[in-house]
């Protein structure tokens, strides 16, 4: 079976590509440039015979994926901007997330009628109601939606990423409802994704937003444990497996992916006690400040 995967050059994507390859799938990797495709081939060189690549320079262009989807059996779409410091909310974040999603669905419907299953990486950001803060005692699950709007994202760039994920996922479900394509859809809502980058896929300077959240706790840049803004996590290797299992599962649906709650202070403590000699580089202050952090939790039992 041949699976088209977008976002394979990223933190979660590299593990996801590996999961499909290890389970005997052939994969077609869509990258933004020829050099990105070459890097992905190098990362997964062990499985070189199972991989082909295709360059999709602009995922928002009309018909962007028309050629990429041809001949594939399934599609897994992870590509979406996840970085701080963008200049233009609409152009840099919202459009690639939303139109990247609708374009790939359009291309599948028009040019790959054989596809029966599509998996899209959404986010915890599509579930949480950010206006309610850490909401002690509340239990989120995949039946809930972030009420954030396009307009509020334009007005407040701090919530633009969350809005991009919510609006992209909503657009995907609207597409399924109105276009009634041949394929069913699964969307995944991972919490903050942590764990090791896939070997050979990246460098310390390019870890990705969430892995970098942990790296700053051990690179000597902080003396004080930072505040935990999103106190729920899941391991990147489990998220990768979840993408494959979602492809192999029948029936449409959303799946929240959560392993539990944590605080940054706990992570610092684990790093300090790891025996890896990190004591001089990991914050020693404020480790217990959030010990009694009462926040929402996430029910991931469906996944
Ligand atoms: P990374 O930044 O490591 O990877 C993002 C991937 O998307 C890369 O392959 C990148 O390609 C591609 N991409 C980003 N913007 C564009 C664009 N404008 N056009 C084409 N491709 C683009 O992030 P993650 O691996 O962490 O995230 C992967 C997915 O998981 C995203 O959809 C993200 O929203 C979602 N997610 C992540 C969570 C986390 O904690 N990490 C939590 C919940 C959801 P390139 O290499 O060319 O830049």
TrEMBL record:
InterPro entries: Epimerase_deHydtase, NAD(P)-bd_dom_sf, NAD(P)_dehydrat-like. Residues 3-249 form the NAD-dependent epimerase/dehydratase domain. It comes from the Eukaryota. Keywords: Oxidoreductase. The keyword DNA repair does not apply. CDD domains: AR_SDR_e. The keyword Cytoplasm does not apply. GO terms for molecular function: oxidoreductase activity, acting on the CH-OH group of donors, NAD or NADP as acceptor. Pfam families: Epimerase. Belongs to the NAD(P)-dependent epimerase/dehydratase family. Dihydroflavonol-4-reductase subfamily. This is NAD-dependent epimerase/dehydratase domain-containing protein.
């Amino acid at each position: 079976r041949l699976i088209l995967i977008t976002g394979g050059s990223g933190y979660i994507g590299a593990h996801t590509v590996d999961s499909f390859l290890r389970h005997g799938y052939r994969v077609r990797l869509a990258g933004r440039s020829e050099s990105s495709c070459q890097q992905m081939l190098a990362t997964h060189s062990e499985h070189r015979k199972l991989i082909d690549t295709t360059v999709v320079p602009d995922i928002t262009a009309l018909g962007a994926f028309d050629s990429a989807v041809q001949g594939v059996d399934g599609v897994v779409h992870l590509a979406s901007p996840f970085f701080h410091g963008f200049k233009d909310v609409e152009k840099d974040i919202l459009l690639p997330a939303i139109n990247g999603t609708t374009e790939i669905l359009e291309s599948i419907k028009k040019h790959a009628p054989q596809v029966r299953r599509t998996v899209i990486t959404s986010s915890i950001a599509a579930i949480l109601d950010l206006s309610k803060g850490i909401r002690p005692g509340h239990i989120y699950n995949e039946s809930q939606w972030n009420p954030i709007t396009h307009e509020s994202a334009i007005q407040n760039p701090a919530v633009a990423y969350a809005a991009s994920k919510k609006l992209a996922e909503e657009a995907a479900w609207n597409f399924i409802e109105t276009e009634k394509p041949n394929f069913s859809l699964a969307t995944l809502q991972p919490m903050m994704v942590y764990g090791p980058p896939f070997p050979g896929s990246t460098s310390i300077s390019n870890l990705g937003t969430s892995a970098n959240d942990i790296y700053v706790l051990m690179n000597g840049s902080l003396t004080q444990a930072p505040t935990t803004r999103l106190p729920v996590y899941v391991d990147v290797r489990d998220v990768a497996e979840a993408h494959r299992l979602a492809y192999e599962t029948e029936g449409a649906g959303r799946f929240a992916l959560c392993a539990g709650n944590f605080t940054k202070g706990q992570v610092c403590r684990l790093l300090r006690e790891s025996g890896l000699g990190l004591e001089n580089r990991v914050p020693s202050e404020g480790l217990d400040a959030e010990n009694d952090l009462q926040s929402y939790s996430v029910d991931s039992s469906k996944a």
